[in-house]
């Protein structure tokens, strides 16, 4: 007797796991994490560790160069407080102070920049280039204490 064309043949069962749906799920999760990760990084409150830093010796106070938002330069060193100065005079003064400290065998001259927060970035970089022309190797930037954040 001839077999019917509508009869099903029995095939062996496929016991292998289909991983395509798992790969699809993993790709969707990867996209979700890639989108949300940058949002998680910003605005995180971090409790920074408190450390004791080395203080400068009182015999060598740093030179403070102040830059106002109008571009005026002032210098404070030793007993001279907030003297108005031009860039060429600043280079000469810092070179002389650098030579005095190296002749005395002291540490290199430390200069701190006290700039107004409204200054242009280019003005501060110009001042730092001027300090470099004077041979200053250690330059720091002064900041104020942050305002306390209001608690809700």
Could you characterize the architecture of this molecule?
- The chain is α/β, with parallel strands linked by helices.
- The termini are far apart.
- Strand 2 and strand 3 (80-85) form a beta hairpin.
- It is 34% helix and 17% strand.
- Helix 2 packs across helix 3 (121-133).
- The longest helix has 22 residues, at 20-41.
- Strands 3-2-1-4-5 form a 5-stranded mixed beta sheet.
- The chain crosses the membrane at residues 21-41.
- It is found in: Cell membrane.
Task: Please write out the topology.
Layout: H1 20-41, E1 63-67, E2 73-77, E3 80-85, H2 87-103, E4 110-115, H3 121-133, E5 138-141
Parallel strand pairs: 1-4, 4-5
Antiparallel strand pairs: 1-2, 2-3
Helix pairs in contact: 2-3
Subcellular location: Cell membrane
Transmembrane segments: 21-41
Membrane topology: Single-pass membrane protein; Single-pass type II membrane protein
């Amino acid at each position: 007797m001839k077999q019917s064309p509508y009869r099903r043949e029995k095939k062996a069962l496929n016991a292998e796991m289909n991983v395509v749906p798992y790969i699809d799920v993993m790709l969707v999760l990867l996209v979700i994490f890639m989108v949300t990760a940058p949002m998680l990084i910003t605005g995180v409150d971090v409790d920074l560790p408190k450390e004791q830093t080395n203080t400068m010796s009182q015999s060598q106070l740093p030179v403070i160069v102040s830059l106002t938002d109008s571009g005026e330069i002032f210098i404070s060193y030793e007993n001279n407080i907030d003297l108005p100065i031009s860039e060429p005079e600043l280079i000469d003064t810092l070179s002389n102070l650098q030579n005095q400290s190296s002749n005395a065998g002291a540490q290199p001259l430390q200069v701190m920049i006290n700039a107004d927060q409204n200054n242009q970035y280019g003005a501060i970089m110009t001042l730092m280039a001027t300090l470099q022309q004077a041979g200053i190797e250690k330059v720091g930037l002064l900041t104020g204490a942050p305002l306390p954040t209001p608690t809700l």
